[in-house]
Amino acid sequence: MYEIAEDAVKELKKYGSEFEIFIEKEEVIELNSKKSVLNFAKDENNFGIGIRVIENNKVGFAYTSNPKDISKVIKQAFSNSKLNEKDENFSFAEQGQKYKKVKGIFDSKFNKKTDLDKGIDFINTLLNTVKDEKCEATSANFYAISSNNLIVNSNDLSVENSGTGFTGSLAVNADKGGEKSTAYDSISSCVFDLNGEKLGNDVCKLAKDSIGGINIETGNMDVILDYNAASGLLSSFISSFSADNVQRSQSHLKGKEGSKIVSEDLSIYDDGIYESGLSSSISDGEGTSSQKTILVKEGILENFIHNIYTANKDNVKSTGNGLRTSYLSTPINMNSNVIFDFKNSIDISEIDNGFLATDVLGAHTANPVSGDFSVEANNSFLIENGEITKPVKKAMISGNIFKGLEDSQAVKSDIKQYGSFIIPKILSKNLNIIG
Fold it and tell me: Is the pLDDT of residue 264 over 90?
């Protein structure tokens, strides 16, 4: 990658303009089974180069997967810049960044050949566990990736990031007396420590426990959001911390700095250097050093997340949130690992009358500006006198995520990472349950 970067730098310096080179190399394994048959396997290498340039305050971008096309791509990037409007807020990361080493984000044992075999073993473990539990697997999946990228720019900045990731997921049907129920869950880690047997047992138990659901009446209830349900609903909430959305007046939090926005019991952090975090790295996709940013401290809004462009607009420093999805795109203002840190927690035994939602369907339809949502609750249960009792057949949950977090509490449970969220189970009071 360094030789390719050197060639690109030599070519770019001919133009005398600001530039940024992003080179990415990936090794990917993907396995999918339909029911009990492994029907898809992918083992591939991906490589690409993205070039950004700034000329006369105009930014241009182009990319290629062929290193031989660098000269052509550079010309295309400059050509594209001429089509854009001038904007003095574009710039590239400065040299002299202080990068912190992040533990637990790279599995040095990653090997496509052996991990492909391990992935097949993982799928087989899932399927065998499901069979032993007398459930039916509708799908079982395994995904592994090793990613390495290099960022070099005209400010003499050079930084390399490496990381690995492993994910397993499972969906099952359970049947009892002709009555069926389904369940789904997934597990992810930066190192290959996935426990397929536990995932299989947990998903089958959830499906079995959900059989025989009852209908419930519509009304307001205290709702425990399990990990999947919470992470789904929190996605619209966390987008309000993006400085890009704030600047576009597309954030509920605009103008509320220093105000109480959630429970005083809750602090929220965006942490790009979180140990073993699925979204951790030493730098973001622009080369800015990753950091831990306080978003909310004891209920009070403290900060928004920034990339270089949004930071320049607000005359502040980037928080290291200029993330890239691949070499095919430019950096966007996006959260890394989001930690929900509650001071105290409540035990489920303290809840007299409540509702447990394991997962929700339709979280993507939530309004990211207002926070209003209406979702279908999956694998849900009643809580009566401190105990999880009857499964619920069908129910909708509606409310507002901002109001729901104003008096939220942590439920005593393990802290887990689901997607970008590092959370306990969360109790949200007085949500509307539609039976």
Answer: yes
Q: How many CA atoms lie within 13 A of 270 on its CB side?
A: 26
The model carries a pTM of: 0.94
Hey, which residues does 423 pair with through a beta bridge? 416
Cβ-based neighbour number of residue 130 at 10 Å: 27
Q: How many CB atoms lie within 10 A of CB 39?
A: 10
d(CA 131, CA 114): 26
Per-state percent for the chain, helix, strand, coil, to nearest 5:
25, 45, 35
Q: How far apart are CA 360 and CA 372, in angstroms?
A: 15
Give the β-pairing of 409-418 and 332-333. Answer: unpaired
Q: Give me the mean pLDDT over the 97-126 stretch.
A: 92
User: What phi and psi, each to the nearest 5 degrees, are found at residue 203?
Assistant: -70, -40
Half-sphere exposure of 338 (CA within 13 A, CB side): 24
Q: Which residue has the tokens 């890009």?
A: 244
CATH 3.30.2290.10 domain residues, the chain: 2-206
Answer yes or no: are the C-beta atoms of 393 and 215 closer than 8 Å.
yes
Q: Which has the closest alpha carbon to 243: 233, 251, 235? A: 251
Q: What is the pLDDT of residues 8-48, one digit of tens each?
A: 999 999 988 999 999 999 999 999 999 888 889 999 999 99
Asked if 398 and 226 touch (Cβ cutoff 8 Å), the reply is: no
Q: Residue 392 CA to chain centroid, in angstroms?
A: 29
Q: Distance from CA of residue 178 to its chain's centroid? A: 38
Q: What is the mean pLDDT of the chain?
A: 95
Could you tell me if 88 and 112 are in contact, meaning their C-beta atoms sit under 8 angstroms apart? no
Distance between CA atoms of 271 and 280, rounded to whole angstroms?
Answer: 8
Whole-angstrom Cα distance, residue 118 to residue 97? 38
Give the architecture (CATH level 2) of 2-206.
Answer: 2-Layer Sandwich (3.30)
Task: Output phi, psi for 401, to 5 deg.
Answer: -65, -30
> CB of 331 within 8 A of CB of 214?
no
Joined tokens for residue 342: 């509650």
CB 51 within 8 A of CB 61: yes
- Number of other CB atoms surrounding residue 159 within 10 Å: 21
